[in-house]
Amino acid sequence: MADTATPASQPPFASIDALVQALAAVGYLADRRLATAVFLALRLQRPLLLEGEPGVGKTELAKALAAALQRELLRLQCYDGLEQREALYEWNYAAQLLHMRAAEATGLANDVEAEVYQPRYLIRRPLLQALQAPAPGAVLLIDEVDRADEPFEAFLLEYLGEYQVSIPELGTVRAAVPPVTLLTSNRTRELNDAVKRRCLYHWLDYPERDRELAIVRTRVPEAGERLSQQVADFVQRLRSQPFADAFQRAPGIAESVEWARALVAMDTVELDPEVVVDTAGILFKQRDDVAALNTRLAAQLLLPADA
């Protein structure tokens, strides 16, 4: 498999503002700091590592960016025990075996080993698909990389640093078009410094109230203005002191949006403590957190901020 040089390409967005507008057009409202990190990753052709609490929009950013760039989205979901062959490639052993048997039957088995290690017998996984994607290239999401183990991190270094991988039977495969690569981490463990050095970095935090309200309005347009404001205000207060100490994990943007959708499905016009308690299982995924959001606490959270 011959190496191919990376062609020069025009930056996909002329400015950070143009990127913000393009993401907004596909339903993702990015703040200036996040948009700057994405813009620089695109301009410098560097992977971008996004860390933050679950549900703050890391995975959704990759989806939105792929839509804005009109590129294919390839997703590698990481987990404990993930192996290289599941991320990069494996050989189609059944097809290779059939070829070898056919070659032996016809007496043409002189160089059968070389024949069976051809690209047509290669099953391409997300990393290799991203490297070999035709123009304009692909967006590769390496999701929850913190769930994989350290040997897998070491395996990623060649790809992250040079947009290439080594296949023993075929040689080095370099990207024809550098993939736009996003890695996400929920910080279940600390990533290796070697991975971090090869990436640009951004910590994706919970949004401020006005941006969260804008996200709810965009994603759940059928929600009334009063309900949208109450959802944004309620979740913001849940994440703030002294209320945050009552819960193991605060709801993310994903939970805010899902909660608003559920409330609309229930024909809710305005929040009250009973509705909040009845739908607590959408905001929280831990039994203790659901139990902690009782009627008394819900009533406190629904009071005006200056009460």
UniProtKB/TrEMBL annotation:
GO terms for molecular function: ATP binding; ATP hydrolysis activity. It holds the Pfam family AAA_5. Coiled coil: none annotated. Residues 44-219 form the AAA+ ATPase domain. This is MoxR family ATPase.
